[in-house]
Structure formats: structure tokens, C-alpha cells
Amino acid sequence: MSKAGYGTVAAQPEVYTPTNWEKIGEVQAPTYKDVPFAIAFLAHLAVMIYIRCQVDDPTPLIDSDVEVTGDQYGFVVVLALCSVGFAIGMFYLIQRMALVLIQASIIGSVVFSVFIGISMIMLGNILTIILGVLCILGSIWYAKAAWKYAAYSAANLETAIAAILDNLGLCFMGIASSAVSLLWTVMWCVVFNAVLQGDKCMNNDDDDCDEGGLFAPDFVFLDILVLQYIVQVTVAGVIGTWWTAPAEADSCCSTAVIDSTYRSMTYSFGSICMGSLLLAVVKALRATTDYLRDQQRSSDEPNAIVGILLCCAECILRMLEGILEYFNQWAFSYIGLYGYSYLDAGKGVVELFQSRGWTTYVTEDIASNVTFFGTLMTGVLTGGLGVLLNSTSFHLFEDSEDASKDWIAFGVAGVTGLVIGGIMMNIVSGAVNTVIVCMAEMPDELQANHPKYSQAMRYGWLKAFPSCGLKYDVVV
């Protein structure tokens, strides 16, 4: 069969050889998983809402006479909508030029590292000369190691973005989730500030009220994590449907988007709460050690032994945090695909990668360089549009000088674009993880339903990992 080339692979006649791999995962019955964690999280929300209802007049977080006008709100809303368009445009650009962008990012990192290395060498100090040489050699080694993964990462990106573009409702869900996160965080901060700013804190200069806020950011982070992972599980479910039953995942608000959203907010909600809680607990413990270390440093008589123990505890907690974040990104992909409980999903995805011999492959993806580029460009384009709109339509910041007005408009618009772009590109990152899992689980289904992406995936993967077990037979 003959197909036009796509992205990372030139057009070539080929014969597809099925892998016939045994599937590790199985679709689970639609039952509620990890229910106690869902109940605990909902109880936490109920307590928060109750506390908010008891606060009649929350103390403002920032004492300011500055008022936000309707025009300023309109300015930000228009920019947010435009930044969504810019981000979708970046999806198309990245899909068409994934390989070029990845190779450019590798070259750019080398150029930057060489510049830093030469600058250090020119300082003339023996230590900086050694460090400069090591910086240059390290960048060259990185480029050589990363270059062979370029086609692999580009193929993953192209396939992930293709699935997202067929189901753009995922992007709007991500934006809605982030908006809820922002509103919830503001409410949380106002409530907690009101609780802390009681008579004792308002009338005394002591620091007793500071200690009460030690875990406040971590409770907020738990809520944000749950929303973030709901989106990730939804993305995984949609990618899985697009992979195996594309007719159900071919529109903005497709059946796949609706069904996957429902599953993530019902049957898999307890598993999402469990993974989020574990990570939030580790972060809370790390916040405690950071606080205690600060207390040690500011103490008149610091205890060296306690300081060392706290330093060790912080290192261990940072490692645990990294392990959990890495574990979660794969476990939640498996939850979205099959509906497993949290622990069963983690066990299943580890077994999958071990059975394929891919335990090292999944760490080699460099697509994050391109998603960062997409976020940055969305911010820059939105910033430029903000300057144009402000000078032609909104005429805000009139109290500032002409040059300052442009910079303020660019800053406000740029931050708006970076936030929206970051949300959209995070969806791409979650989709890439799911694509890797699906490729390990069911490559034959991709060939059957999306042959042009299958060709690019197999070519890219075999170029990076010749022994990965996939087949790519070119007809001579």
C-alpha cells in the first residue's frame, strides 16, 4: 500500500507488519474507584464552602485604591479569546514543523550553552575556564544524544496534536478548568486571610498568626491538582477513543469528549483525588521542612544537627515529589484509557513498559522544548495584539507616558497569552504521554485507523530505538 509521507517521514511504499502484541490493559467496568478519597475531598470542599459562608466581610488581600474598570476587563477578555486562537494556530504550526522545531531547539540550546561557556572562559579564572569548557562539552554531548530522538519526539507531537485538533473541546475544558482554579484560589485566599486576620492578628505585632497559614497553600494546591488531573484523565480518554474508534472522536464536542469528561468526574474521580492527595501531602511536608529551616536560620542559636536533618528531609521529600509527579503522569493516562483504580493503573503502566522493554524510552521525550516555544509565541503574539488594540480601540493606561503605555499593554496582554498558551500546551503534553502509552499498548489500531500517523510514529520510534519491537518494512 502506498501513502503520502507525513511530517517526519518521506513518502515511501511500505508493507505493514502487525506487531500482534498482547494487550496489558483491559477496559474496566464502569464502577466508582477509590471512593474514600473522593468522599474525603468532597468533605474538604464542604468545609471550605461552610467557612466562606461564615465570613461576612472578608478583609481585602491588598489594600489599594486602584479600581478595575469595565474597559480593562473587556481588554483582558478580548485578549484571552484571541490568545486561544493564537494557541490553536501554534498547534497547526507545530504539527507541520515538529521535526524542524525540535532540531532548532536542540541547536539553540547548544548555541546558548557555547555562548555561556565562552563567556566563562573569557573571565580568565582557572575555575571559570574549567566550568566553561565543561559547559561547552556538555552541550555538544547533549546535542549528539538528543538529535537521534528528534524524529521520535516529532512523531509523538504530530499524532497528539492531530487528536486534539479533532477534539478541540479539550482545549476549552482546560481553559474552563483553569478559570475555576483561579476563582477557587482567590476565594480560598480571601477566606483564609479573613480567618487569620482576626482581632489577635489585627491588634498585635506577634507572628502567631503566621504559623496558622503554613499549610494553606498546600490545601489550595490539592484543589488545583484535582482539576488539573481531571483534564489529564479526560485527555487520555479522548486520545484512546480517537486511537481505536475515530468516528466517536472527530468533532469539537464529540462523544469521546463528553463521555471521557463524565468518566473523569464520576467513576475515576476517587482515583484522581488519591493521586492528588499523595502529591499534596508530600508538598505539605516539604513546606513544613522549608518553614522549619527558615526558623533555624533566623534563630539566635541555630542547632547544626537539626539543620542537617532538615536538609536531608528536604532532599528526600523533593525526590519523592519528583517520583510522584512522574508516576502520576503515566498512571492518569492509564486511568483515562481503561478506568483502573489509581494503584492498579500505576502497576499496569509499569508492567506495560517493562513487557515492551521501554522503561528507558519513555524518559527520552524532548517535545517539551517545542511546547514551551508554543507557549512563548502565544504570549508574544498576544502581547503585540494588546499594544495594537490599546492604541486603536481601548486607550487604557492614559495616565502613563506614551512609551510606558505600550509596555504596560504588552505586559498585561503577554501574561494573558502566556497563561492561556501554557494551559493549551499542557494539554498537548498530556496527550503526548497518552500517545506513548497507546503506542506501547496497541500500535496495530493506529495503523488501522490513522495510517499516515502510524507511518510517522513507526519511522520516528525505530530511528531512535531500533530494538523497540515495532516494524517498518519498506518495499524496494
Task: Give a structural overview.
- The chain is mainly alpha-helical.
- The chain is built from 16 helices and two strands.
- Helix 2 packs across helix 3 and helix 4 crosses helix 14 (402-441).
- Mean pLDDT is 81; it is low at 1-13 and 199-215.
Provide tags for this entry.
two-stranded antiparallel ribbon, 476 residues, globular, single chain, mainly alpha, disordered N terminus
Helix-strand layout with pairing:
Layout: E1 14-15, H1 35-54, H2 70-122, H3 126-147, H4 150-165, H5 169-196, H6 199-203, H7 208-212, H8 216-244, H9 255-265, H10 269-298, H11 304-338, H12 342-356, H13 368-394, H14 402-441, H15 443-449, H16 451-464, E2 473-474
Antiparallel strand pairs: 1-2
Helix pairs in contact: 1-10, 2-3, 2-4, 2-13, 2-14, 4-14, 4-16, 5-8, 5-14, 8-9, 8-10, 8-11, 8-14, 10-11, 11-12, 11-14, 13-14, 15-16
Describe the structure concisely for a colleague.
This protein is mainly alpha-helical and 476 residues long.
* Average pLDDT number: 81
Shape: globular
Structural class: mainly alpha
Identify the strand order in the major beta sheet.
Answer: 1-2
User: For the CA atoms, what is the radius of gyration?
Assistant: 25 Å
**Assembly annotation:** single chain
The helix content, as a percent range, equals over 70%
Give, in order, the helices and strands: EHHHHHHHHHHHHHHHHE
Strand content: under 5%
The total of helices stands at 16
Low-confidence stretches: 1-13, 199-215
Number of strand segments = 2
Distance between the termini: 13 Å
Largest sheet: 2 strands, antiparallel
